[in-house]
Amino acid sequence: xxxxxxxxxxxxxxxxxxxxxxxxxxxxxxxxxxxxxxxxxxxxxxxxxxxxxxxxxxxxxxxxxxxxxxxxxxxxxxxxxxxxxxxxxxxxxxxxxxxxxxxxxxxxxxxxxxxxxxxxxxxxxxxxxxxxxxxxxxxxxxxxxxxxxxxxxxxxxxxxxxxxxxxxxxxxxxxxxxxxxxxxxxxxxxxxxxxxxxxxxxxxxxxxxxxxxxxxxxxxxxxxxxxxxxxxxxxxxxxxxxxxxxxxxxxxxxxxxxxxxxxxxx
Length: 266
What we know:
The chain is mostly helical. The protein has helices spanning 10-32, 52-81, 86-111, 118-146, 153-180, 202-224, 226-230, 250-265. The longest helix is centred in the first third of the chain and has 30 residues, at 52-81. The chain starts with 9 loop residues before the first helix and ends with a helix. Mean pLDDT is 87; it is low at 259-266.
Protein backbone atom coordinates (compact mmCIF):
# COMPACT_ATOMS: atom_id res chain seq x y z
CA UNK A 1 0.00 0.00 0.00
CA UNK A 2 1.35 3.40 -1.00
CA UNK A 3 1.68 6.13 1.66
CA UNK A 4 -1.15 8.21 0.17
CA UNK A 5 -3.47 5.18 0.31
CA UNK A 6 -3.23 4.96 4.08
CA UNK A 7 -6.21 6.47 5.90
CA UNK A 8 -7.16 9.88 4.54
CA UNK A 9 -3.64 11.10 3.85
CA UNK A 10 -4.60 11.71 0.22
CA UNK A 11 -6.63 14.76 1.35
CA UNK A 12 -3.80 17.04 2.54
CA UNK A 13 -1.56 15.64 -0.21
CA UNK A 14 -4.15 16.52 -2.85
CA UNK A 15 -4.65 19.97 -1.34
CA UNK A 16 -0.94 20.76 -1.48
CA UNK A 17 -0.30 19.35 -4.96
CA UNK A 18 -3.43 20.86 -6.51
CA UNK A 19 -2.88 24.31 -4.97
CA UNK A 20 0.78 24.39 -6.02
CA UNK A 21 -0.28 23.34 -9.53
CA UNK A 22 -2.84 26.15 -9.69
CA UNK A 23 -0.08 28.69 -8.97
CA UNK A 24 2.45 27.12 -11.32
CA UNK A 25 0.11 26.53 -14.28
CA UNK A 26 -1.28 30.06 -14.11
CA UNK A 27 2.25 31.46 -13.86
CA UNK A 28 3.49 29.47 -16.86
CA UNK A 29 0.46 30.46 -18.95
CA UNK A 30 0.86 34.14 -18.08
CA UNK A 31 4.59 34.05 -18.86
CA UNK A 32 4.14 32.28 -22.21
CA UNK A 33 1.51 34.85 -23.26
CA UNK A 34 3.68 37.76 -21.96
CA UNK A 35 0.96 38.96 -19.62
CA UNK A 36 3.37 39.37 -16.67
CA UNK A 37 7.11 39.65 -16.10
CA UNK A 38 8.96 36.35 -15.55
CA UNK A 39 10.70 37.52 -12.37
CA UNK A 40 8.35 36.82 -9.44
CA UNK A 41 5.04 38.51 -10.32
CA UNK A 42 2.23 38.67 -7.80
CA UNK A 43 0.33 35.39 -7.68
CA UNK A 44 -2.88 37.35 -8.30
CA UNK A 45 -1.34 38.99 -11.39
CA UNK A 46 -0.90 35.56 -12.97
CA UNK A 47 -4.67 35.07 -12.74
CA UNK A 48 -5.86 38.45 -14.00
CA UNK A 49 -6.08 38.12 -17.78
CA UNK A 50 -7.83 35.33 -19.74
CA UNK A 51 -7.16 32.48 -20.34
CA UNK A 52 -5.06 32.03 -17.18
CA UNK A 53 -7.77 33.84 -15.18
CA UNK A 54 -10.22 31.01 -15.95
CA UNK A 55 -7.66 28.35 -15.02
CA UNK A 56 -6.69 30.20 -11.84
CA UNK A 57 -10.29 30.62 -10.74
CA UNK A 58 -11.51 27.06 -11.21
CA UNK A 59 -8.39 25.50 -9.69
CA UNK A 60 -8.50 27.72 -6.60
CA UNK A 61 -12.18 26.92 -6.11
CA UNK A 62 -11.29 23.24 -6.04
CA UNK A 63 -8.45 24.03 -3.62
CA UNK A 64 -10.98 25.72 -1.32
CA UNK A 65 -13.14 22.58 -1.38
CA UNK A 66 -10.12 20.38 -0.59
CA UNK A 67 -9.21 22.79 2.20
CA UNK A 68 -12.67 22.50 3.77
CA UNK A 69 -12.51 18.69 3.61
CA UNK A 70 -9.01 18.60 5.11
CA UNK A 71 -9.88 20.96 7.96
CA UNK A 72 -13.07 19.07 8.77
CA UNK A 73 -11.21 15.75 8.99
CA UNK A 74 -8.59 17.40 11.20
CA UNK A 75 -11.38 18.69 13.45
CA UNK A 76 -12.95 15.22 13.74
CA UNK A 77 -9.59 13.62 14.45
CA UNK A 78 -8.64 16.02 17.24
CA UNK A 79 -12.11 15.64 18.77
CA UNK A 80 -11.93 11.84 18.67
CA UNK A 81 -8.50 11.83 20.30
CA UNK A 82 -9.52 14.24 23.08
CA UNK A 83 -13.21 13.62 23.85
CA UNK A 84 -13.02 14.77 27.49
CA UNK A 85 -10.61 17.71 27.34
CA UNK A 86 -12.76 20.85 27.25
CA UNK A 87 -9.90 23.23 26.48
CA UNK A 88 -8.82 21.24 23.43
CA UNK A 89 -12.43 20.78 22.27
CA UNK A 90 -13.06 24.54 22.44
CA UNK A 91 -9.85 25.36 20.57
CA UNK A 92 -10.69 22.68 18.02
CA UNK A 93 -14.07 24.29 17.26
CA UNK A 94 -12.43 27.70 16.95
CA UNK A 95 -9.86 26.22 14.58
CA UNK A 96 -12.55 24.70 12.34
CA UNK A 97 -14.43 28.02 12.18
CA UNK A 98 -11.26 29.93 11.29
CA UNK A 99 -10.37 27.34 8.67
CA UNK A 100 -13.75 27.57 6.96
CA UNK A 101 -13.52 31.38 6.90
CA UNK A 102 -10.06 31.11 5.34
CA UNK A 103 -11.36 28.77 2.63
CA UNK A 104 -14.20 31.19 1.91
CA UNK A 105 -11.58 33.90 1.46
CA UNK A 106 -9.81 31.68 -1.07
CA UNK A 107 -13.05 31.48 -3.07
CA UNK A 108 -13.23 35.28 -3.07
CA UNK A 109 -9.65 35.49 -4.38
CA UNK A 110 -10.48 32.99 -7.11
CA UNK A 111 -13.62 34.75 -8.32
CA UNK A 112 -12.85 38.46 -7.80
CA UNK A 113 -9.68 39.32 -9.67
CA UNK A 114 -7.25 41.98 -8.48
CA UNK A 115 -7.58 44.24 -11.51
CA UNK A 116 -11.39 43.98 -11.62
CA UNK A 117 -12.56 44.38 -8.01
CA UNK A 118 -9.41 45.22 -6.08
CA UNK A 119 -10.90 45.89 -2.64
CA UNK A 120 -13.02 42.73 -2.69
CA UNK A 121 -9.90 40.82 -3.73
CA UNK A 122 -7.98 42.32 -0.79
CA UNK A 123 -10.75 41.28 1.61
CA UNK A 124 -10.43 37.74 0.27
CA UNK A 125 -6.66 37.84 0.74
CA UNK A 126 -7.04 39.05 4.33
CA UNK A 127 -9.49 36.25 5.08
CA UNK A 128 -7.32 33.63 3.40
CA UNK A 129 -3.92 34.59 4.77
CA UNK A 130 -4.81 36.61 7.88
CA UNK A 131 -7.47 34.30 9.29
CA UNK A 132 -5.56 31.33 7.87
CA UNK A 133 -2.48 32.32 9.88
CA UNK A 134 -4.60 32.36 13.04
CA UNK A 135 -5.87 28.89 12.08
CA UNK A 136 -2.26 27.74 11.87
CA UNK A 137 -1.61 29.27 15.30
CA UNK A 138 -4.58 27.40 16.82
CA UNK A 139 -3.45 24.11 15.28
CA UNK A 140 0.08 24.67 16.55
CA UNK A 141 -1.26 25.28 20.06
CA UNK A 142 -3.35 22.11 19.76
CA UNK A 143 -0.23 20.21 18.73
CA UNK A 144 1.53 21.56 21.82
CA UNK A 145 -1.33 20.51 24.09
CA UNK A 146 -1.48 17.01 22.59
CA UNK A 147 2.22 16.21 22.88
CA UNK A 148 3.76 13.94 24.00
CA UNK A 149 0.68 11.76 24.73
CA UNK A 150 -0.90 11.88 21.26
CA UNK A 151 2.12 12.59 19.07
CA UNK A 152 5.82 13.46 19.43
CA UNK A 153 7.27 16.89 20.13
CA UNK A 154 8.83 16.95 16.67
CA UNK A 155 5.55 17.67 14.88
CA UNK A 156 4.90 20.58 17.24
CA UNK A 157 8.30 22.12 16.51
CA UNK A 158 7.83 21.62 12.77
CA UNK A 159 4.45 23.37 12.84
CA UNK A 160 5.82 26.14 15.03
CA UNK A 161 8.67 26.68 12.55
CA UNK A 162 6.25 26.88 9.62
CA UNK A 163 4.05 29.28 11.63
CA UNK A 164 7.04 31.58 12.21
CA UNK A 165 7.85 31.36 8.49
CA UNK A 166 4.26 32.35 7.70
CA UNK A 167 4.32 35.24 10.20
CA UNK A 168 7.59 36.65 8.87
CA UNK A 169 6.22 36.48 5.29
CA UNK A 170 3.06 38.34 6.33
CA UNK A 171 5.11 41.04 8.10
CA UNK A 172 7.46 41.44 5.13
CA UNK A 173 4.60 41.61 2.63
CA UNK A 174 2.63 44.07 4.75
CA UNK A 175 5.52 46.51 5.23
CA UNK A 176 6.73 46.37 1.61
CA UNK A 177 3.16 46.80 0.30
CA UNK A 178 2.63 49.83 2.54
CA UNK A 179 5.80 51.38 1.16
CA UNK A 180 4.94 50.47 -2.45
CA UNK A 181 1.36 51.81 -2.37
CA UNK A 182 2.08 54.83 -0.18
CA UNK A 183 1.99 57.13 -3.21
CA UNK A 184 5.74 57.77 -3.32
CA UNK A 185 6.14 55.70 -6.49
CA UNK A 186 3.11 56.84 -8.43
CA UNK A 187 -0.56 55.97 -8.55
CA UNK A 188 -2.61 53.15 -10.05
CA UNK A 189 0.11 50.60 -9.31
CA UNK A 190 -2.57 47.98 -8.71
CA UNK A 191 -3.17 47.73 -12.46
CA UNK A 192 0.54 47.55 -13.26
CA UNK A 193 1.61 44.12 -14.58
CA UNK A 194 5.02 44.96 -16.08
CA UNK A 195 7.89 46.51 -14.13
CA UNK A 196 11.24 47.93 -15.23
CA UNK A 197 14.12 47.20 -12.82
CA UNK A 198 15.17 50.84 -13.19
CA UNK A 199 11.81 52.16 -11.97
CA UNK A 200 11.36 53.61 -8.53
CA UNK A 201 9.60 51.21 -6.22
CA UNK A 202 10.90 48.13 -8.03
CA UNK A 203 12.75 46.89 -4.94
CA UNK A 204 9.66 47.22 -2.76
CA UNK A 205 7.65 45.46 -5.47
CA UNK A 206 10.04 42.50 -5.59
CA UNK A 207 10.12 42.18 -1.79
CA UNK A 208 6.32 42.22 -1.73
CA UNK A 209 5.93 39.59 -4.46
CA UNK A 210 8.60 37.29 -3.02
CA UNK A 211 6.89 37.58 0.37
CA UNK A 212 3.54 36.64 -1.19
CA UNK A 213 4.96 33.50 -2.82
CA UNK A 214 6.75 32.65 0.43
CA UNK A 215 3.50 33.09 2.35
CA UNK A 216 1.55 30.86 -0.03
CA UNK A 217 4.08 28.04 0.20
CA UNK A 218 4.29 28.33 3.99
CA UNK A 219 0.57 27.49 4.03
CA UNK A 220 1.11 24.50 1.76
CA UNK A 221 4.01 23.34 3.93
CA UNK A 222 1.80 23.47 7.01
CA UNK A 223 -0.75 21.16 5.41
CA UNK A 224 2.03 18.76 4.48
CA UNK A 225 2.46 18.13 8.21
CA UNK A 226 -1.07 16.66 8.26
CA UNK A 227 -0.19 13.76 5.96
CA UNK A 228 1.26 11.50 8.64
CA UNK A 229 -1.60 12.27 11.04
CA UNK A 230 -4.20 11.54 8.37
CA UNK A 231 -2.72 8.09 7.78
CA UNK A 232 -4.23 7.19 11.16
CA UNK A 233 -7.87 8.11 10.46
CA UNK A 234 -10.76 7.02 8.26
CA UNK A 235 -14.33 8.35 8.06
CA UNK A 236 -17.44 6.54 6.87
CA UNK A 237 -21.03 7.56 6.21
CA UNK A 238 -23.85 5.65 7.92
CA UNK A 239 -27.16 5.34 6.03
CA UNK A 240 -30.28 5.67 8.19
CA UNK A 241 -33.65 5.01 6.48
CA UNK A 242 -36.77 6.71 7.87
CA UNK A 243 -39.09 4.26 6.15
CA UNK A 244 -39.21 1.19 3.91
CA UNK A 245 -40.50 3.16 0.89
CA UNK A 246 -40.25 6.66 -0.52
CA UNK A 247 -44.06 7.16 -0.50
CA UNK A 248 -45.74 9.43 2.05
CA UNK A 249 -48.12 6.78 3.38
CA UNK A 250 -49.79 7.01 6.81
CA UNK A 251 -47.71 4.05 7.92
CA UNK A 252 -44.44 5.82 7.10
CA UNK A 253 -45.66 8.94 8.92
CA UNK A 254 -46.11 6.87 12.06
CA UNK A 255 -42.66 5.37 11.68
CA UNK A 256 -41.14 8.83 11.20
CA UNK A 257 -42.99 10.18 14.24
CA UNK A 258 -41.74 7.32 16.42
CA UNK A 259 -38.22 7.82 15.15
CA UNK A 260 -38.33 11.51 15.99
CA UNK A 261 -39.71 10.80 19.48
CA UNK A 262 -36.95 8.31 20.17
CA UNK A 263 -34.29 10.69 18.83
CA UNK A 264 -35.74 13.53 20.90
CA UNK A 265 -35.68 11.46 24.08
CA UNK A 266 -31.97 10.85 23.63
